[in-house]
Design a protein that fits this description.
Blueprint (H helix, E strand, L loop, with lengths): L4 E3 L6 E5 L1 H10 L7 E5 L4 E11 L3 E11 L6 E7 L5 H12 L3 E5 L10 H21 L7 E2 L5 H9 L3 E5 L5 E2 L10 E6 L7 H9 L3 E4 L7 H16 L4
Parallel strand pairs: 1-3, 6-7, 6-11, 7-8, 9-11, 9-12, 10-12
Antiparallel strand pairs: 2-5, 3-4, 4-5
Helix pairs in contact: 2-3, 2-6, 4-5
Pfam family, one: PUA_4
Family: Belongs to the RNA methyltransferase RsmE family.
GO biological process, one term: rRNA base methylation
Length: 243
């Protein structure tokens, strides 16, 4: 297996101390011992590859860093605008999209969303999405974790689409398959995933005015919590990032 990944505030060379919650997880949960390989990352593309030198107590270990690597920003950058699903399906969507390779996730308060992020609930829900992205980033051995933006309105999503080199809305009545879309080699690709009740005609029109086309994934209709992951996988393969 590849070395486990742990999140640190700053990546540096030499001997590094891993403590706090990450150190506790490494010692008490992963039960790492001296001589085992680890990777320390800031989640922004920088990683330190090294070996555990010693372990102290239940939450501290020392890592001798052998190499520091800088991972370039991916091209094109893939963002998924995810309408708020019901229950814990939002965290499921964030987890699987992160493991697949998405670069950014934008929560969207679509008009047909059953779930609403308001007040303290909204703050807590956004925190869960961001924590899920961090944990999934570590689990999938990424050095660059996806950004999870603040909750967006339809107007804000339209502005985001307007600035993308390629913008698409997944829609079961889309006139063209996403698998045949012409993708840019650089810049930003933004994909919109609607809620359980679908993207409203008004939202579809607003996104169309911003330059986003309506595309379908295939003959079946996916749940909102899985459509983004399928779309990201398709885009990663077609853009050459999985090549």
């Amino acid at each position: 297996m590849t070395a486990p990944v742990f999140l640190v505030d700053e990546v540096s060379a030499g001997t590094v101390v891993l403590d706090g919650p990450e150190g506790r997880h490494a010692v008490s949960v992963r039960r790492l011992n001296p001589g085992e390989p680890v990777v320390l990352t800031d989640g922004a593309g920088r990683g330190a590859f090294g070996t555990v030198v010693s372990v102290e107590g239940k939450s501290t270990l020392y890592v001798a860093v052998d190499e520091v690597r800088e991972e370039p920003a991916p091209r094109p950058r893939i963002t998924v605008v995810q309408a708020l699903p019901k229950g814990d399906r939002g965290e499921l969507a964030v987890e699987t999209m992160t493991e697949t390779g998405v670069d950014a996730i934008v929560p969207w308060a679509a008009s047909r969303c059953i779930t609403q992020w308001k007040g303290e609930r909204g703050v807590k829900s956004l925190g869960k999405w961001r924590a899920t992205a961090r944990e999934a980033g570590k689990q999938s051995r990424r050095l660059r974790f996806p950004e999870v933006a603040e909750l967006h309105s339809t107007r804000q999503v339209a502005a985001l689409l307007g600035g993308a080199e390629f913008a698409a809305v997944l829609h079961e009545e889309g006139s063209a398959p996403l698998a045949r879309a012409s993708l840019p080699e650089e810049g930003s690709v933004v994909l919109v995933v609607g809620p359980e009740g679908g993207v409203s005609p008004e939202e579809l029109a607003a996104f169309g005015e911003a330059g986003a086309g309506a595309f379908r994934l295939g003959p079946s209709v996916l749940r909102t919590s899985t459509a983004g992951t399928a779309g990201v996988a398709l885009l990663l393969g077609r853009s050459g990032r999985w090549g």
